[in-house]
Give the backbone structure.
Amino acid sequence: MKKTKKPNVVILGAGTGGTIVANKLRRKIGSKVNLTVIDPTFKHPYQPGYLFVIIGKEKPENLVKDSRKLLPRKSEKIQDYAVKIDTEAQEVQTKEHGGIKYDYLVIATGSRLATDAVDWWDDTIHHFYNGEEALRLYNELKEFNKGKIVISIADIPYKCPPAPIEGAFLIDDYYRRKKIRDQIQITYTSPLNRAFSIQTTNEVIEPLMKKRGIEVKTFFNTDEVDTEEKVVYSLEGEELDYDLLIMIPPHRGQSFIKESGLPTDEQGWVNVDRYTLRVEGFDNIYALGDATNLPISKAGSTAHHEAPIIAKNIKSQIKGSNRIHKYNGHVQCFFVTKYGSSMFLDFNYSHPPKAKRSTRYWWWFKKIFKPFYFQMVAKGYV
Ligand SMILES: Cc1cc2nc3c(=O)[nH]c(=O)nc-3n(C[C@H](O)[C@H](O)[C@H](O)COP(=O)(O)OP(=O)(O)OC[C@H]3O[C@@H](n4cnc5c(N)ncnc54)[C@H](O)[C@@H]3O)c2cc1C
């Protein structure tokens, strides 16, 4: 009997989205596919933990796992950069391993922290969007005992929309515990007309920020920063001086995607169908997580809920079925308001989150989520 060739499924990126798709696929179609995952480092960080690094409650080295141990055993793992996608030849070019052929391709390459996108960024500016910078910020905050902290956003979109406000709450809490909060001024700037983008959640968050003495400046879109004079200028014409600046860096899609001619927006986020998660114009290329230009949160939870849809749609295609599975925009996330209290948000394309109180109950879920993430979420069990 003639043996049919197994389809090649190639996944770019072994972060949250790529790892879950790989595990879901392996479980859904067993060994009926050749599964290849390409990633330059195979280091898989639990990024929400960076927030606790900045107040000395977590260590960056405890947040990272080797993603090869999270991926299915029966998958090829190529440590390399994808540098080009040739959609005609159905081949991914890598930096050192040549071309890798695909029948189905999944783009899960996340977002790039693009401090090079602005000409004013220098290392006097802090952030907490990777482990190294979160630790550098902690060392700075430890020594900073008096003055004005500004927490600002370089541009949109950026991953985990609650994270900058969570950072402000945790820093407030840190100085309260040190009993020097009255010597520290904290200002949070928002590009919108409110502190947090989702109105129903903002109804709880913004009053809480005010209660905690965190000044909120709305309609503040960063134009540039003079790091010598220590002033942030907004496009709206405002000036804000600081002693310590924490700036959420500009985010961009990985540049090779746009350079390969795939449909992306200006910033390099891939255009995908919001339901099928197929890249516009292709029925065998999918994208998920931060890499897409969907108008929803760039969050691990988004990738988590998108991944099974992609696995099911690839399975349908391989089996020759016409069944199309649809992503409904489901996102769930914690919103920490101090060390010991959190809200929980749950929403989708048609239902915004309901306004809820921040409680200790949700904090405990947040606390145990790291091991749950690595053991259950990343491995595709839930
Ligand atoms: C401070 C902070 C707090 C956060 N808190 C939360 C939270 O509470 N809840 C939540 O849901 N989300 C949170 N997030 C966001 C979440 O971590 C990301 O949105 C999520 O990891 C995105 O998953 P992804 O698979 O799209 O990208 P990633 O997990 O970033 O993975 C991308 C992968 O692509 C690889 N890659 C890059 N370039 C290439 C290339 N050329 N070729 C091959 N591979 C490549 C990278 O090495 C990486 O492994 C937080 C993020 C931060 C920074």
About this structure: The chain has two domains: 8-111+253-331+373-377, 114-251.
